[in-house]
Amino acid sequence: MHTQTVFELSQEAERLLHLALHHLEALQSVPFAALQQDSSGASELPLHFSQQGIEAQQETLRSELRKITRQEMVLAIVGTMKAGKSTTINAIIGTEVLPNRNRPMTALPTFIRHTPGQKEPVLHFPHVAPIEALMGELQQQLRHFPRELLSRHLELDQDMVALLLRIEHGTHFEKHYLGAQPIFHCLKSLNDLVRLSKVLGVAFPFSAYAAIEHVPFIDVEFVHLAGLEGGHGQLTLLDTPGPNEAGQPHLQQMLSEQLGRASAVLAVMDYTQLKSVSDEEVRRAISAVGNGVPLYALVNKFDQKDRNSDDADQVRALISGTLMKGDIDPEHIFPVSSMWGYLANRARHELAQHGALPDPAQQRWVQDFAEAALGRRWRDDDLADIPRIRQAADLLWEDSLFEQPVTTILHAAHASASLYALRSASHKLLNYARSTGDYLAFRCQGLNVASEGLQDNITRLEQDRAVLAASRKGVEDEIQHEVIRTLETVAACINSLQTRLVQDVEFYFSEGMLPQHERYDALAIPQARRRDFIPYSSRLTMENEEDARMMMQTLRAACELMLHRGQERLSRELAGLFPALESNLSRTLHDALAPVQQRVTDGLLDAGFRTRIALPAFQTAALNLDVQQLFINAVAPQDVPVATLRRAAGMRGTMARWLNSSDWGWEDAVATRTHYFIDLDNLKQSLLAHISQFSDQLNQAVATQINSSVSLGLATFFSDFTRVLSDIDASLRQSLAARQQSEEQLMALEQQLQRCTAATAWLHEDTRLLRDDIQTLFAVQTS
């Protein structure tokens, strides 16, 4: 019954996709229907209903049609180079398919299809002609480009030297590569071609690989899916280029297009760099996909978590709430160690297939596995203990935390790939129908407006665009004033924290006990009345080494407790400031630019247009003002100077570290009885210096983060608003051009547009019903 229902829904989806493609072809054939690109170049991207925009929509719909026909669910994986995207993909697949190098490795989107029984990966690259043409151009350029000059702009490593020889000798790319090493070589060469092309000033043929059927694809059995019952449909991973990867800014557009054609998106984020600019670009790209595509996130390198770092629940809350503003559910966020997951699974696979691991001298991954699973002191003999290695691999897999995302994402996608493909197609169709309906309604109205009215609106719109450009400086000044006020408030909070911490430190080192207001900590309550040392002591002397060690631990715990509590107070205060800043910035932007919006709307209404024009939403997600991360980016409060090593081991050396002494140590001691000293005054001054440094760096971190985030948010806002006005301007000009035709031609054009409008309305209604049926089936499938 389920199979029959999916088949019927697929048939309906195919019908609607063919209908939408037919509508676009009809629209292209209608005179004055497609928009002309603004000659002023105000719009950086093709207009949605320009010739290029229509072709892009057609490719999106054809992509959905291919997925429906193949019952293929495409899981797009996006991440920056340092996030470990290739390692994560290898961990998902269960074996090494993609090469790992500390540089961009995805020049072209690459599909990786789960193919049961295909143990050895095979890469298919049927559309190789554009690369061959590129290599011919590079061969000509290299004849006149000195190798010494090339080495100044490019790292001539072993791979690059091999590629240069390959170009010189005219060696062709093959259309098929069998096995991991040949695949590595092919993909590495493609990525090195991107770098080389940039240096030599030759355009890489990215546009030739805009169509899905032209990009490389790999067939291989996913280890985690081997032996499972056949799912409904085909599961395929899509390895996407990161934004601005390999220094190619236009890859951002390619990334957006590929994500827009995916059935679901998996973002690979770096646990150690969640606030970085590169990760912000990835977050913006996946946020732009919209609600129609399921979003997931793997937070890689979680194995680098220490006792002071955020735990798994805190990471989920940070990404879902602060960084992604609710675009990803916390349940879809998985902190993992991709490297551990990949190493553990590959070791288990090797043990299952061959009963032992390969020679570590021959395959480097075995060395990495041994160090991760057995520790740094592993020996070759340890690898011969197969039961121990099996257990170590299982434990490493468990520690990688990869089991949950494999079950939640991979197994579910494999079982319901056809449903994911159907849901993706229905959302793409709905988006198409809505945008097309709005556009055609606007164009039909334009045919009923007199030329004078259209020209007046075009003139007003040009003026409004000029006003928008001129007002940007004033708006940015207002925003900057708001930022300055916020930074002043933040600085006051930090200074207040510093003052209170200084008072607490002074009190502690004077009275020998923590201030009373610090004693609400549950662990400190039993010691509430106990002093750690005699009041007003400047130096502690102990005869027993163990007593000295215990005193050191007591002092360290007290210092850390004061710093921890200070951080918690500041976190609470800043957490209230940042949402207010986001709200104020959004209100300032809309108050300043609402007159432009209103003038455009009023002018169109006066001319007879019934249209909805609104300012774009200010992307508060771009601010990413996270309190806890600020402390990590500045100075970790727990790293008090008492823990800074300055000498080798030995208790007297340890005491010398507390004294900050450079000339006292056990080497020079000649007394027959050893005493242990702790200089409290020196420790207090070191701690106060640490607090001062922490405050300064925290102030700087807040200022840097707010300024960069606000700049990014403003740039996005103005870009979106400018594009809206450009689209309206292009539509008005096209309507004015149509008005110049004869009445008979004008009437025929209006009838054609009305037929397209009616057909689009029918398409929208049928697609809405299809979407509802798919959602119902999804609910039954997942219940």
TrEMBL record:
InterPro entries: Dynamin_N, G_DYNAMIN_dom, P-loop_NTPase
Matching Pfam families: Dynamin_N (PF00350)
GO molecular function, one term: ribosome binding
Coiled-coil residues: 732-759
CDD domains to which the protein is assigned, alphabetical: Ras_like_GTPase
Keywords: Coiled coil
Signal peptide: none
Domain Dynamin-type G positions: 69-407
Entry keyword annotation includes Coiled coil: yes
UniProt cross-references to PROSITE patterns, sorted A to Z: G_DYNAMIN_2
Cross-referenced Gene3D superfamilies: P-loop containing nucleotide triphosphate hydrolases (3.40.50.300)
Highest taxon listed in the record's lineage: Bacteria
The keyword Coiled coil belongs to this UniProt entry's keyword annotation: yes
PANTHER family documented for this protein: GTPASE DER
Name under which the protein is recorded: Clamp-binding protein CrfC
Organism expressing this protein natively: Siccibacter turicensis
